[in-house]
Structure formats: C-alpha cells, structure tokens
Amino acid sequence: MAPRRISIAKAALSEGANVSEAFEKSGFGDYSSFFKAFQECTGVTVLAYAQIGIFFRRYPDCPGEGFEEAAVIAKAAFL
C-alpha cells in the first residue's frame, strides 16, 4: 500500500502542494512513516522532491532532465 500512497504524495508535490498537504493527501498516519516510506520509494527526501518541483514550476522552459530524472540527480548530489 505504501507505493500507492507515495504515488499520491508525488502527484500532489508535482502539482504544487507543500509537504504537509502531500502528507495529508497520502493517508499516512504519522510524519515519520511518511518520510521514511517516501525516501525508500523514491531515493530522495520528500523535501528534496518538493524543491525539485518548485524549480521546474518556476523555470518550465529549463532544458534538462524531467522531474523523475532530476530527483535521481539530486540524490547523487547529496551522497
């Protein structure tokens, strides 16, 4: 069930929701479980994923990778 909930959270973040809104929409019972499951499923923290979304909404004509590939690049940058 976690992958479905994470998909809901990712969609919300991609549409401009903040982390709290994504948490509420995803249906997790507590923040700790949400943050842990999100990072396990995506490879990046929920905050990093949200910041990538903000960047792509702010600069929609930016050449480069798509949203999911940018998350992978961001993960590599933090390692």
How does this structure look, described?
The protein is mainly alpha-helical and 79 residues long. 73% of the residues lie in helices and 0% in strands. The chain contains 5 helices and no strands. It has helices spanning 2-14, 19-26, 31-42, 46-58, 67-78. The chain starts with a helix and ends with a helix. The mean pLDDT is 80.
Q: In one word, what is the shape? A: globular
Q: How would a textbook summarize the main sheet?
A: none
How would you classify the helix and strand content by structural class?
mainly alpha
Q: How many individual helices?
A: 5
Average the pLDDT over all residues and give the rounded result: 80
Termini gap: 28 Å
Run of helices and strands = HHHHH
Query: Spans of 5+ residues with little confidence (pLDDT < 50)?
Result: none
The whole-angstrom Rg is 12 Å
Give the beta-strand count: 0
Percentage of residues in DSSP E strands: under 5%
Helix content: over 70%
